[in-house]
Amino acid sequence: MKTFGGPALFLDRADINTDEIIPAKYLTEITKEDLKPYLLEDLKLPGFDPKGDKTRAARVIVSRANFGCGSSREHAPWVFEVNDITTVIAESFARIFRQNMFNCGMAAVELPRERIDTLFRYAECPDASIGVDLEKQTITVQGGGEVESFAFDISPFDKALVLAGGWVDYADQRY
Amino acid sequence: MGKTTAEKIFASHLVDEPFPGTRVLRLDVVMCHEITTPIAIADLMARGKDRVFDPARIKAVIDHVTPSKDSKTATQAKILRDWARRHDLKDFFDVGFNGVCHALFPEKGFIRPGYTVIMGDSHTCTHGAFGAFAAGVGTTDLEVGILKGVCAFREPRTIRVNLTGALPAGVYAKDVILYVIGQLGVNGATDRVIEFRGPVVDAMTMESRMTLCNMAIEAGGTSGICMPDGVTVDYLWPFIQDDYPSQEAALAEYSQWRSDDDAAYDRVVDIDVSGLEPIVTYGYKPDLVKPISEMAGTPVDQVYLGSCTNGRLEDLRVAAQILKGKKIAPTVRGILSPATPQIYRDAMQEGLLDIFMEAGFCVTNPTCGACLGMSNGVLAEGEVCASTTNRNFMGRMGKGGMVHLMSPATSAATAIEGVMADPRKYL
Ligand code: SF4
């Protein structure tokens, strides 16, 4: 199983799509590692720098509704994976992206809007970080001397995939 | 309580329910292209599992960048080609025979009512036009599909979109689906199937139904679905005539997949299309739509006609009818990519390619190319393209470029004027 949690990167916009996460021109790369430098290259957000220290240090991404919409490319979870970002927390996800995350043994955590708003209150803290406990299904956000914790839902299937380290071995043994 | 088409397909293909709410389905067709499949192949090889569950049920094509434009894309093509040969895939389409997957595979008769279909491509929802459950998946799901012929899904709920009235002249399936996406929003159908119903759909060709279903994903939908009917049987008849004594017999069997009258829907949306105008997008999301009357006059640098949404013969006919005897504006580059070799040849024999070339269009080979900004018409920073494709995300057709989605008719009128234009004055 992968490790989850750490410094958080806040992307304050809905509908962040897979072309913004990893542009199509890099889909010709044959290994996941080759994708590493191109993380979020085409995303334009005020104050966001794809090459900045905050982006490079991030282990968790927090965003708004419909995260990961667009193409089916699993290169989107992979570019997170090779940059050690194993958790994305959002108000909602596009179906294929969400499944791709779990299929790779990573976590796509959905939280209601009020909870996401709460998390965004930490966006300005330079030390904002989020702990993720998948067993207990809780996340803990801290920054600027404050700490808050809450529970999240995850389907038993998705949880099993994370624990098994992905879908390929699970399916090959079972079907 | 009756069942929807999706529910019937789920029930008949269920292999396992490992956890409540998770359905593992048996797959009828697994489709592959050279962008998302090579990594699945590499991973299967690394795991010592370089096998395929059934070579007859796997279809593969090189379509996104073809013929290869550089060593990297050539390597991707080679990995897919070598794998297809190694496993004896009968249905593998290489240069000379290849076209855009979601246009090519239906044309070959691979999709039938009641089928389950996956592909490592988000627009797999297109194939729901045949009354199938067809869903785009990522590389890992594709890998398991190739290896075991199964895929896990949440049981999808269905949104029923009733299309009533009559399509006005100059308004097509593309305008309808852009309008529907505008109504539902880009995530209005997440984890849902969109069932397209009503007299407007009944009167549509299979090509138009594919245009509708193609963009279900742009509202977040898992699959679009149309009811199998006489139009479906007509389209499939050349492929199934040895299997059924008559078209009526085929229709009777396919009808079992139609949603029951008392099926339950998550939501029902009624749209009367009679007052619809041609629709275009104006921003970086496909739900940002406006009638052409509000966008007319917007300058464009390029017009692109092609893709799995609108690169079929009926699309080319509509555009050619408008372009006939005219020239495109000198400030505009026109690019046409017929979606498959068959469409290309039919268009050639009908004289459509002549019309496009007389007008000043460049006709490229069948490929995805510019649709995803890979080749054959990538935009420069700040450039604008009027396009019959399905995605207008920032950078989709090239970094810093802007894409306006529209019908083939609207794009043809726009090519003539060099600015966005209403096709209805050319009809
Ligand atoms: S034509 Fe465009 S949308 Fe369709 S499969 Fe090719 S890249 Fe995807």
What does this protein structure show overall?
The complex is a heterodimer of chains A (175) and B (427). With 175 residues, chain A is α/β, with parallel strands linked by helices. Chain A has one domain (5-174): Aconitase, domain 4 (Alpha-Beta Barrel). Chain A is 29% helix and 21% strand. Chain A contains 7 helices and 7 strands, in the order E-H-H-E-H-E-H-E-H-E-E-E-H-H. Chain A has a 7-stranded mixed beta sheet. In chain A, strand 5 (129-133) and strand 6 form a beta hairpin. The longest helix of chain A is centred in the middle third of the chain and has 9 residues, at 95-103. The two termini of chain A are 22 Å apart. The mean pLDDT of chain A is 94. Helices cover 33% and strands 19% of the residues of chain B. With 427 residues, chain B is of the alpha/beta class. In chain B, a hairpin with a 7-residue loop joins strand 13 and strand 14. In chain B, the strands form 5 sheets. Chain B has a 5-stranded parallel beta sheet with strand order 5-4-3-6-7. Chain B is built from 16 helices and 19 strands. The radius of gyration of chain B is 21 Å and the shape is globular. The termini of chain B are far apart. Chain B has 2 domains: 1-276, Aconitase, domain 3, CATH 3.30.499; 281-426, Aconitase, domain 3, CATH 3.30.499. Chains A and B meet through helix 4, helix 6 and helix 7 of A and helix 2, helix 3, helix 5 and strand 8 of B. The complex binds iron/sulfur cluster (SF4). The site of iron/sulfur cluster (SF4) has 13 residues of chain B, from helix 4 and helix 12.
Quick take:
The complex is a heterodimer of chains A (175) and B (427). Chain A is α/β, with parallel strands linked by helices and 175 residues long.
